[in-house]
Specification:
By secondary structure, the chain is α+β, with helices and mostly antiparallel strands. The chain has helices spanning about 50-55, 95-110, and strands spanning about 5-15, 20-30, 35-40, 45-50, 60-65, 65-70, 75-85, 85-95. It has an eight-stranded antiparallel beta sheet, sandwiched between helices.
Length: about 120
């Protein structure tokens, strides 16, 4: 049984053009990597970063390495990704992100504590 959590969302790819382009994005959480989240972008580009970064980015601007996240009003979240090829900026509706984080918290709460070995 797979315990991986996936949330499909649509984000707006912010460009220099007059209208942002809507693109499919997948948020993915694997309990085997409990402290990370993976964001799968169009074209097969995957970005993996700390789940805590995404959670904190809902409340205030955060930066870790090549990733910046910040809230944009009450209903939007901005994800800015820096790579050698340039910068990509995505604007998410916040509802699917909150739903995803709720599901990951529920999954984490159900997870049994890690087994310890006697010394």
């Amino acid at each position: 049984m797979s315990l991986v959590i996936q949330e499909h969302a649509r984000a707006r790819l912010i460009t220099d053009g007059p209208d942002p382009r809507r693109v499919p994005v997948e948020l993915r959480y694997d309990p085997e990597e409990p402290k990370t989240v993976q964001v799968r972008l169009p074209g097969g580009a995957d970005w993996t970063f700390g789940l805590d970064l995404l959670e904190r980015g809902l409340r205030s601007p955060v930066t870790r390495g090549d990733i910046r996240i910040w809230p944009c009003g009450r209903a939007q979240l901005i994800l800015e990704l820096h790579s050698p090829d340039g910068v990509a900026v995505f604007q998410f509706d916040i509802a699917p992100v909150i739903r995803f984080l709720s599901r990951t918290r529920a999954q984490t709460a159900k997870r049994p504590p890690a087994a310890t070995t006697p010394a």
